[in-house]
Amino acid sequence: MESAREGVPFFSHPGVRLFATSAAILFLELLLIRWIPANVTYVGFFSNFLLMGAFLGIGVGTLLGRSGVAPPVSPFGPLLLVTVLLVSKAQLNVQLRSQDEVFFGLAESNAADANFLVLPLLVGITSVLLASLALPLGPLLRAMPPLRAYATDIAGALFGIAAFSALSFSWAPPIAWFSVLAGLAAAIALGRRIRPASLVGAASFAAVLALLATDERLARDSWSPYYRISLVREENARRAHIFVNGIPHQSMWPVSELPEREPFRFQVYRWFRGRTFDRVLVIGAGSGTDVAVALALGAKHVDAVEIDPRIAEIGKAINPNRPYQSERVELFLDDGRSFLRRTDRVYDLVIFALPDSLTLVSSTANLRLESFLFTDESFASVRRHLAPGGVCVLYNYYRQEWLIDRLASMLGRGCGSAPLVRRFFPVSASIAAGPGVAALTTLPDEVDPPRTESAPAPALDDWPFLYLKERSLPIHYLVALGLVLAFAVFLVTGACRVTKTPLTRASPHFFALGAAFLLLETRSLVTFSLLFGNTWLVNSLVFFGILASVLAAIAVNAKLELKRPALLYGGLFLALAVNLLLPPESLLLDPAWLRYALASLLAFAPVFFANLVFTRSFRDTKTADMAFASNLLGAVLGGALEYLSLLTGFRALVLVVAGLYALAMLLATRWRSLGDAELT
Question: Model's pTM, two decimal places?
Answer without folding.
Answer: 0.87
